[in-house]
Design goal:
The chain has 172 residues and is mainly alpha-helical. Helices cover 81% and strands 0% of the residues.
Length: 172
């Protein structure tokens, strides 16, 4: 049973590691596509970088998924070692992972509104003029089509494996 939980947790870790890997590989193309869209809209392209909007693997797009992957891998290691801490750590880590993934999914589904609101809060005239939906569509176009399938698979793996790990842990 411990090995099964560990495998599920390692699947979750792998799913989270995929985020910065994809952004590292294709983020520059997404940024180029976004900047091209800004030029089309008559907005200077540098405004995104100046305001901390990125499509690459920088900042929280790297440290957060890596930290989550490390946490789930640590919990998996505890299970594989047969540690008495494994169950308790799993309950905490997988519950937090489920909540974080809910936030990620919500963020993905509300991206246009949240980015628009963030731009409005900045009070920058250039940001206020941006058609955010078109900008995000352009940036998404900088990633290969399979990335969106990967995103959906990642959510299924994270939700499914986390719930399964918790159910199996409850039976330990």
């Amino acid at each position: 049973m411990n090995a099964s939980v560990a495998v599920l947790q390692l699947l979750v870790a792998t799913a989270f590691i995929s985020i910065p890997l994809v952004r590292h590989r294709f983020g520059a193309a997404a940024t180029d596509a976004a900047e091209t869209e800004l030029r089309r809209q008559g907005v200077r392209p540098g405004v995104l970088a100046e305001n901390g909007m990125r499509f690459d693997a920088g900042g929280h797009e790297t440290w957060a998924p890596v930290a989550i992957a490390a946490s789930t891998a640590t919990a998996a290691g505890l299970h594989l070692l047969g540690s008495s801490w494994a169950s308790g750590v799993t309950w905490v880590v997988q519950t937090v992972v489920l909540l974080i993934n809910c936030l990620i999914l919500y963020s993905n589904l509300t991206a246009v509104g949240s980015v628009s609101a963030a731009f409005a809060r900045k009070g920058d005239e250039d940001l206020a003029r941006i058609d955010v939906a078109a900008l995000l569509r352009a940036a998404e176009g900088g990633f290969p089509g399979w990335v969106w399938v990967l995103q959906d698979v990642r959510h299924v793996v994270v939700f499914g494996a986390s719930v399964a790990a918790l159910v199996l842990t409850a039976g330990l």
